[in-house]
Amino acid sequence: MATTDVRGAAGEEAIGWSGRVMDVLGHVSRLLLVQGLWLGGALAGLVVLGVFPASVAAVRALEAPSAPVRAFVVAYREAFGRANLAGAGFQVAWLVVALDVAVSSSLPAGIASAALAAVTIVGAVSAVSAAYAVVALARAPRATTRTVVRFAVVAPWLTPGRALVVLAALGAVAAALLTAPPIALLFGASAPLLVHAALIGPAVDRATA
């Protein structure tokens, strides 16, 4: 009986481990799938018009209980106009940041350093707010664009700890792009969006309840 009990316990432990491995593989597979969908959605909108709706659709696909491809396609179509309208301000901010970085190289050293510090802060703040906007668009599809933008601008300042974690996830993507492009290509959008949805989603739910 003791031998049977030991074998039974070992068998249950093996089944438990295999189940956990399958869960991990399932999550990784979904991240890879959503990453591919995100890339396709971004390219379908010629990047400029595709990034925001693809990001919103990716959050929906990551959170969908089943059929992530269908969830992505439906969300992409539904969110295309609203996502681009909400994201326009952030894209303008990033364009200004890029222009300032390009111009700063021709400025005196002291002024260039101050300018780079300023645009870095602007870029970081706008990136975090954009992440909040994406999750809000995905979680509250009936919210007005004005409500989404207001939430994205105000909410990070109300919970700075959460905003810093969101910023850290974005920083990890930037670091991966510079040091490990293959990893960024495989998980550069889906992984941070999964983190953002987990962090920001409850705040969106409370704000729209």
Describe the fold and architecture:
It is a single chain. With 209 residues, this protein is mainly alpha-helical. Helix content is 88%, strand content 0%. The chain has 8 helices and no strands. The chain has helices spanning 2-44, 51-63, 68-104, 109-139, 145-158, 160-179, 181-187, 190-208. Helix 6 runs antiparallel to helix 8 (190-208). The radius of gyration is 21 Å and the shape is globular. The model has no long low-confidence stretch (mean pLDDT 89).
SSE map:
Layout: H1 2-44, H2 51-63, H3 68-104, H4 109-139, H5 145-158, H6 160-179, H7 181-187, H8 190-208
Key words describing this protein structure:
209 residues; 8 helices; mainly alpha
Task: State the gist of this model.
The protein has 209 residues and is mostly helical.
Helix count from the secondary structure assignment: 8
Distance between the termini: 56 Å
- How would you classify the helix and strand content by structural class? mainly alpha
Helix fraction bin? over 70%
Silhouette: globular
Total E-strand runs? 0
Rounded to an integer, what's the Rg over CA atoms?
A: 21 Å
Low-pLDDT sequence parts? none
Most strands sheet? none
H/E topology pattern: HHHHHHHH
